[in-house]
Amino acid sequence: MIFLLYSLSANSNQDLSPSLNTKLLEIYSNLLLDLEACINDEGLEDKDRLKTACNADNLHPFQNILFQTQYKHISFYLSGFEYPEPAITVKQHNYPTSMHAKSRNGVVVIVFSIDKEGKTFNHKVFSSTFTYTKRERGSECQDEFCQEALRAALALRYKPATYLGSPIVLDGIKVIYRFVLDENKVFTSRGGAVELNKVNKLIDKGKLQKAKEKSLEKIDDYHYMNLQLAKIFFLEKDYLQAQKYAYDFLYDNWSFIEGGQNKFRLLGLSILTESCFKQNKYKEIIDNYELIQDFNLQKEYKNDLAQVNMFLGLSYLFEGDLIKGIEHLLIAKRSTENIKVIEIIDLYLSEADKAI
Fold first, then answer.
1. Per residue in 288-320, pLDDT tens?
2. Which domain holds residue 44?
3. How many domains does the chain have?
């Protein structure tokens, strides 16, 4: 296990102080030894170690912190196992053509197994950003995005995983499918577009009370008005109301949202996160981890998420979870060139170093 640790190249030195980097490597090494001891206590040997019930979740943040990868399969932590190389057979997934799908962008994550010949089986939807109510990971998803991702995943073929050079069956493999249309356009009726533009013009002119009245008047007709109200209340520094309307926009009645693109969801997520932070509601920020993580999986949005990840990281720190706090502060730091944000992150990383 120690050999595994030092055979990896920790490439976070430019992000962490030498002191904090050394401390985190030591913690990671000890956690690897704890996992090995736990598996030994189970009596599992050789290939059967993949069946362990021992928890490796506490190791996952170190992949982002030390190695800048989100690779989280249990075989990564166990010596003797070789994970499959990138798929040798891939079928392109297509954007669904139904009218229902036309204003939707997001990702679907499929989980499956690979047999000894490299064929995939036991495909399931692990998560989908197209189901915007909070639901349990792995629960059934029948929409056209999930079905298209499943269709593409069924065609995947790999060189098999191996243990000490011999092919093995490997479970719990994940692949991400991204579905993207024009995310800068608001898909809505002509009347809806007119009303949204009216509110935007009032906000731009600083006529927030009139913008608020217009948004409330039309909110039952156009769900997007929840985001408008979130913006208005945030500008008025009424963070409780900004939080409420941002949450409603992100999680309630998704099928009626006219502005379905990620640009608008990112704005709602930013307002929700910062509004909670300004009220010291750190646990409520952490409650939105799954939605934040869904966007983190989409690399094209990492710059837009820098401050969201910073607030999430600080929330973890303030709630006493130093490792996850450091993880998300580093995700933020690596995705921004904003000097002020970087200075804030470095300040708190220094405090975390003292606390460990």
1. 998 888 777 666 777 788 999 999 999 999 999
2. 2-74
3. 4
